[in-house]
Design brief:
The protein has about 350 residues and is an alpha/beta fold. The protein contains 11 helices and 15 strands. The protein folds into 2 domains: about 210 residues, DHBP synthase; about 100 residues, Rossmann fold (3-Layer(aba) Sandwich). The strands form 2 sheets. An 11-stranded mixed sheet has the order 1-8-2-3-7-4-6-5-9-10-11, sandwiched between helices. The structure holds adenosine monophosphate and magnesium ion (MG).
Length: about 350
């Protein structure tokens, strides 16, 4: 199958027929990758079990790892889920559309293939105009995980999607790089207080300002520990290179790069603006952005890992963001990207 790249320009008149073409593919049970404000998603009709099964096959995603359902209105959330608390309604009003996913009890029409057999469903309203138009023209909720091979860094451009899934899906809507660059925050509303399952685009502090205390499960589960949520594997978002995290100080970054150069033939670095690096032809540098500018660093994180991987780096050195605000999402993704698989015998 030849994956079609449908290039959008931001001009509504020329984009509309392309998005309608993509919607027709979704309605026919096909797979379309599309931009959201977080990362590119791999979409299928959430009410069509066969179509949803194809998502798992294309990504190599295990069937026990449930998908997020994307809808375009609060009414649609009410249509596909049950038991809304006052807190849920407040979150919908404040953060939707946006990078917040809520886990809620599901109604019957949402396929068990989507939820991996659970009686809850993860659901959100994306903000990206292309994602919203695609959902509207499809006339159906769209199940969509990130449009990458399972376990790899998430895709923030159509090129990333085609690199991982080219010829395994019908089409990709190309609207350029995604604005946020990290996935949505996932909040489980079936517990009290609600449980933060994955840090993401909406910081915990912003959520707590609206609904009060939120419970946080242990960040990265170590081997043998039960996962805080299905699919939150310790190793994830990982490039082929080994990811080496360091204390976020310029001198430590420099020293870690030096050490890495003594152990690996080619070394990559995600460099915060202005930080010094060793002078070595075996070093590949990705200019990441100003340290502390978490919006920019989030937007460029996955592209940085993929770029350095493509430049054949065997190890990638990266300073560790702090445990606060949007930086918490970067920290989470980097910890998982750096996690070692247990040795298999
Ligand atoms: P992705 O779409 O690749 O960003 O992954 C979505 C993640 O959402 C999954 O890996 C799960 O961790 C989480 N998730 C989806 N549905 C549920 C659910 N019903 N209960 C708990 N977590 C969920
Ligand atoms: Mg994913």
């Amino acid at each position: 199958m030849l994956t079609q790249r449908l290039i959008l320009t931001g001009d509504e008149a020329t984009d509309k027929p392309l998005i309608q073409q993509a919607a027709a593919i979704i309605r026919a049970g096909g797979l379309v990758a599309f931009p959201t404000e977080t990362v590119y998603g791999l979409g299928a009709d959430a009410l069509n079990s066969e179509a949803v099964r194809r998502i798992f096959l294309a990504k190599g995603r295990p069937a026990w790892d449930p998908l997020i359902v994307h809808v375009d209105t609060p009414e649609a959330i009410r249509r596909y889920t049950r038991d809304h608390s006052v807190l849920t309604e407040r979150l919908i009003q404040t953060f939707m559309p946006g990078a917040l996913t809520l886990v809620l009890p599901k109604r019957e029409m949402i396929s068990e293939v989507v939820t991996a057999g659970r009686d809850t469903v993860a659901i959100r309203i994306p903000q990206h105009p292309v994602a919203r138009a695609l959902i509207r023209y499809s006339g159906t909720p769209i199940a969509a995980p990130s449009a990458n091979q399972f376990g790899r860094p998430s895709p923030t451009t159509a090129d990333h999607v085609l690199h991982d899934l080219g010829n395994a899906i019908e089409a990709v809507l190309d609207a350029g790089p995604t604005p946020l660059g990290v996935e949505s925050t996932i909040l489980d509303m079936t517990t009290f207080p609600p449980t933060l399952l994955r840090p993401g685009g909406v910081p915990k502090e912003a959520i707590e300002a609206v609904i009060g205390e939120v419970r946080v499960v242990g960040s990265v589960a170590s081997e043998g520990e039960p996962l805080p949520a299905p699919g939150l594997s310790a190793r994830h978002y990982a490039p082929k290179a080994k990811v080496l995290l360091c204390v976020p100080e310029p001198e430590v970054f420099y020293g870690t790069l030096k050490d890495a150069l003594s152990q690996y033939a080619i070394v990559g670095g995600l460099r915060p603006e202005g930080w010094r690096v060793p002078d070595d032809p075996r070093l590949r540098i990705f200019e990441w952005g100003a340290w502390g500018d978490w919006e920019t660093l989030a937007q460029r994180l996955f592209a940085g890992l993929r770029t350095l991987e493509a430049e054949q780096a065997h190890a990638i050195v990266c300073p560790m963001p702090p445990d606060e605000g949007l930086a918490r999402a970067l920290r989470d993704r980097l910890q998982r990207a750096a996690h070692e698989e247990p040795t298999r015998h």
